[in-house]
Amino acid sequence: MTYSAFFTIILTPLVILGLATMLTWVERRLLGLWQDRHGPNRVGPGGMFQAVADGTKILFKQDWIPPFADRGVFILAPVIGMMTGLLPFAVIPVTMGMGIAGDMNVGLLFILGMMGLGVYAVVLAGWASNSKYALLGGMRAAAQMISYEVFMGLSLLGVVMMAGSFSLHDIVAAQAGLWFIIPQCLGFGVFMLAGIAQTHRLPFDLPEGENELGAGFHTEYSGMKLGMFFIAEYAGIVLVSSLVTTLYLGGWRGPFLPPALWFALKAGAMVVFFILLRASLPRPRYDQLMALGWKILLPLSLFNVMATGTILMLRAS
Amino acid sequence: MHALALLAASVTVMGAVMAMTRRVAVHAVLYLVVTLLALATVLVMLGASFAAMLEIIIYAGAIMVLFVFVIMMINLGQPDSAREKEWLRPRAWCGPGVLATIMCAELLYCLNPPSGPAPAPITAHDVGLSLFGRYVLMVELVSFLLLAGLVSAFHIGRNRVGGR
């Protein structure tokens, strides 16, 4: 292992954690902007250090484990959340040379696998808390995330078919002429919806719907364990944004500016779009969410796979 | 590489043993997940990274989550753990132990140490070609089975309007 690869491996999680922390402030400021109020603007320039203040506060809070909880699993759940939130970044190629394992030949499957394992964090948190609201949140999360994993995988098939590879490097390379968002617009739509549901962000945050479940699966959590769930959630947003950038928006490609900056710009725009969705859309009912998935997204993504396959076959022959 | 593969294999075996002996159902399922992940590691080292990722996505990421889901639904408690303890008496281990020993001996006898260069990595392309070339009949049979499962699940779970 070369020195620079080692350096990248150390640096990547730190950058992601920093980004996720800053994102809490960015989100609150943007929400404030869109909802015609200030948001946190007192600590530091523009309220920038609010994230640091919140982080310090949450670190020094009492770390309490309820006596009725299953202790081992209760501690394990946020750890799984953090791990599965950070590991997928290993295979995301920021530029041609930046990234840990961008050319892994099953990179996309690795990301899907890690997202699949991320379900455990929420489900186990719900079960181990041994309280009814947490359990309801955990069960909702299990059903929602497993369902939307299916559509996410299916919507990505179109991209994989066009690129002819699971490696994210090859997928970006295949977008030299045209970004995949144009031929794969259907897949892109399904992927976006599935991505929001998978990271259980608003408007699809039914597992933690606070008006009906308290705080859902993390009702019983406090201190840094709660903080870990938050950071995993924001890392999830960054992940889905980077994935959209890599798979549909041509990755690091773009004129004039350096590749890394292009990647950051595209991913940043996607993150802001995620926050805009939160600011503007109401939360659907749980059965509406599941009906949307199985009755609309599943046929759409299957159709996308079929159409892409047919066109590729016709073009090849 | 050899040592790493052995390490992953021993984690697999340990996980399987723990999965059998835990009394709390969720803990057992978690050890089973560890077993599956370790098995995926072994597969990666054998060059079958595609199969390894499928193992993680399908078994660890979907089927085991459904197990946890069902366990959460039926809400096992203290009496169930006690009953589990009752089932796991030493005498119950005799029969399976003998059978497993026979299998293990047979496996060790048949297993020749691999020789020659390491096999080339198996790509998704190879898997697809063999699935829809050589094993196409199996794929079709499995899809029949899945269809039957889908139809019966729909039949059982259907909303019956007007009682009955």
UniProtKB/TrEMBL annotation, chain A:
NDH-1 is composed of 14 different subunits. Subunits NuoA, H, J, K, L, M, N constitute the membrane sector of the complex. It comes from Komagataeibacter swingsii. Keywords: Cell membrane, Membrane, NAD, Quinone, Translocase, Transmembrane, Transmembrane helix, Ubiquinone. This is NADH-quinone oxidoreductase subunit H. One of its GO terms (biological process) is aerobic respiration. Coiled coil: none annotated. The gene is nuoH. Its main location: membrane. It is a multi-pass membrane protein.
Automatic annotation (TrEMBL), chain B:
The chain crosses the membrane at residues 29-49, 56-77, 135-156. Keywords: Cell membrane, Membrane, NAD, Quinone, Translocase, Transmembrane, Transmembrane helix. It is found in: Cell membrane. GO terms for cellular component: plasma membrane. InterPro entries: NADH_UbQ/plastoQ_OxRdtase_su6 (IPR001457), Nuo/plastoQ_OxRdtase_6_NuoJ (IPR042106). GO terms for molecular function: NADH dehydrogenase (ubiquinone) activity; quinone binding. It catalyses: a quinone + NADH + 5 H(+)(in) = a quinol + NAD(+) + 4 H(+)(out). Its EC number is 7.1.1.-. It is a multi-pass membrane protein. The keyword Isomerase does not apply. Pfam families: Oxidored_q3. It is an enzyme of class 7 (translocase). Its main location: membrane. Signal peptide: none annotated. Composed of 13 different subunits. Subunits NuoA, H, J, K, L, M, N constitute the membrane sector of the complex. NDH-1 shuttles electrons from NADH, via FMN and iron-sulfur (Fe-S) centers, to quinones in the respiratory chain. Couples the redox reaction to proton translocation (for every two electrons transferred, four hydrogen ions are translocated across the cytoplasmic membrane), and thus conserves the redox energy in a proton gradient. Belongs to the complex I subunit 6 family. PANTHER family: NADH-UBIQUINONE OXIDOREDUCTASE CHAIN 6. This is NADH-quinone oxidoreductase subunit J.
